[in-house]
Write a structure and sequence with these properties.
By secondary structure, the chain is of the alpha+beta class. It has one domain: Aminopeptidase. It is built from ten helices and eight strands.
Length: about 270
């Protein structure tokens, strides 16, 4: 058994690898978010508006006014990049404080997915089948890893919600791009949900953007339901991204709030 992924709790020494992973995870959706925003109706309206202002009020030739199109696209990219960079800095700061935020009490936790591979990795991880196991299963297996290297390829965290009574937030769900579609994200979500159940939470919520459809589909298959949708500003109020808040109801009836029911077609809009 030469290719293994172990889901375990965060421990000292993981900080640097976790920072690199979450940074790559956040930035990996930069392009899809950018293109999604560019092709929105509002972006086209901005292009037409700016071109009309230049033509009507400044009397510029139409050929010059057309140049507003790449200008708007450039501004959208800059705004999106700045927003993603700010998010990366925010999450990196949080990862630096994982021991205090997530590991200092019994009601929150931070997990990593750690891959064990041969020193001489001759195959692309995308083409390798990994055996997934929990930390306890790994300890009981008595597998010899003396000739293998380890690498953190996924993260997830859970903490108490300050908005929902007896509710929890699942956060920082990231999987390295080369290790996706191998069941790692599914195992990370399972561990977080099971922790919420064991600690007596009534529900576990998470937030995903409109450009992370694979993640939303994974959570829906696991029994999560849509609780609400809202727009997150990217470039002020002009450019926003639709966010989905999903909830996994553990103890129905304990919270006064009853989430609305949405169809799958609405989730994919």
């Amino acid at each position: 058994m030469s290719h293994i992924v172990v889901i375990r709790s965060y421990k000292p020494g993981d900080e640097i690898n976790c920072k690199e992973l979450v940074k790559a995870g956040i930035m990996s959706s930069l392009n899809s978010t950018f293109f999604g925003i560019v092709f929105k109706e509002l972006t086209f309206q901005l292009m037409i508006l700016f071109a009309a202002i230049m033509f009507i009020f400044f009397g510029l030739p139409l050929t010059v006014c057309v140049l507003v199109i790449p200008l708007v696209i450039f501004l959208v990219y800059v705004g999106t990049y700045i927003a993603f960079t700010a998010k990366t800095m925010e999450v990196s700061e949080e990862v630096s404080n994982v021991p205090r935020i997530y590991m200092s009490n019994a009601f929150s936790c931070f997990w990593v997915a750690e891959a064990f591979e041969p020193y001489l990795m001759t195959h692309d991880p995308k083409n390798v089948q990994y055996n997934l196991m929990t930390e306890q299963q790994f300890r009981n297996s008595d597998i010899d890893i003396s000739s293998q290297v380890k690498k953190i390829v996924g993260t997830v965290a859970l903490c108490k919600s300050h908005r929902l009574d007896k509710g929890a937030w699942i956060k920082r769900l990231y999987v390295h791009e080369q290790y996706r579609r191998k069941g790692i994200a599914s195992c990370l979500v399972n561990v977080a949900v099971q922790f919420a159940i064991d600690e007596g939470y009534s529900c576990a919520n998470l937030v995903a953007s409109e450009y992370t459809e694979a993640g939303r589909e994974l959570c829906l298959k696991k029994g999560f339901e849509l609780q609400q949708m809202y727009h997150k500003p990217i470039l002020g109020s002009l450019i926003t991204v639709l966010m989905y808040e999903l909830t996994y109801q553990i103890k129905p009836g304990e919270d006064d709030y009853v989430p609305p029911v949405y169809s799958r077609s609405m989730l994919n809009k």
